Amino acid sequence: MCFFLIFRGKYATVCRAVHKKTGVHYAAKFVKKRRRNQDQMKEIIHEIAVLMQCSDTSRVIRLHEVYESTTEMVLVLELAAGGELQHILDMGQCLGEAEARKAMRQILDGVAYLHKRNIAHLDLKPQNLLLAEPNSCDNIKLCDFGISKILEPGIIVREILGTVDYVAPEVLSYEPIQLSTDIWSIGVLAYVLLSGFSPFAADDKQQTFLNISKCDLSFEPEHFEGVSSAAIDFIKTALVVDPRKRPKIKDLFEHPWISLKTSIPGTLNIHATSTETSQPTPKSTPLAQRKSFACLTDGGAPTPTAKSSARTPFCCPDTVNAPPFADSAVHMDI
């Protein structure tokens, strides 16, 4: 194969790989076996095992081959030519409601596949949602299963992991991780896709965690103009603090906003607004300045340079300098 660099990080590198004989393009993820003098083979093998379990669905990025050297593992993955859904948010935009609904249906489809196999993704976010084709959300794929968990019956898993803005309250309180932990992230995703903002982010991690724990949620009219009451209700339905009271994936499929039969165009229209004009009632006190997220296990969110009560567009510091619709088939928190 020939390799062309896409992204280089501290612990891993992603390259576009071209098969010399067939000309087929793939994404090759080079992962170092050791990080900070710690053996990472268990985590790498786990991700490979999950991807192999998901080989019969189009909603999960496909693993084609695995190679090993003395220092690293190489995962040869399906190439998603449209890049990360995150890039749309990096441009300070959000999806129109019809496009957001289409995206959420596919995300639910992928998560339903995982949950049937007792797999919790635990890091659902726009960076880990890939577009098969540029400028189209007709075919969205889930990727990056590095912190996913296979929840065996009778085994309790407690661990602090995830991405700050998307992490569920039970993770912060060190309660058992459940499949419903993903449901919380789905609610945050819907909010972000519809508004372009994170619902809980504040000027520092501590305030963000407090907002999450209290489900301190608001729907400012200027950011949800034209968004239907059904969409607002979908978000509220998923964002329930008690994981035992959250809906299951099948319940979200049956929610009126998702099950609504409507014609949805196939091309992204990031400036579009829905004709479903029922307005939500905003909270009187807006949340603090919206800041981009960071991995909980990587030191948390960046420190802002100034305090402000104004909301700023939701973007990711890890990808904001990347070209729109980059060729990466997998995003890595590295």
TrEMBL record:
Annotated Gene Ontology cellular component terms: nucleus
Keywords: ATP-binding, Kinase, Nucleotide-binding, Phosphoprotein, Serine/threonine-protein kinase, Transferase
GO MF annotation terms: ATP binding; protein serine/threonine kinase activity
Record-linked Gene3D superfamilies: Phosphorylase Kinase, domain 1, Transferase(Phosphotransferase) domain 1
Major enzyme class: transferase
GO BP terms: intracellular signal transduction; positive regulation of apoptotic process
Record keyword Metal-binding present: no
Domain called Protein kinase: residue spans: 4-258
Catalytic activity, as annotated: L-threonyl-[protein] + ATP = O-phospho-L-threonyl-[protein] + ADP + H(+); L-seryl-[protein] + ATP = O-phospho-L-seryl-[protein] + ADP + H(+)
EC id: 2.7.11.1
Family statement drawn from the similarity comment of this UniProt entry: Belongs to the protein kinase superfamily. CAMK Ser/Thr protein kinase family. DAP kinase subfamily.
Protein name as catalogued: non-specific serine/threonine protein kinase
Species per Swiss-Prot/TrEMBL record: Brassicogethes aeneus
Taxonomic path: Eukaryota, Metazoa, Ecdysozoa, Arthropoda, Hexapoda
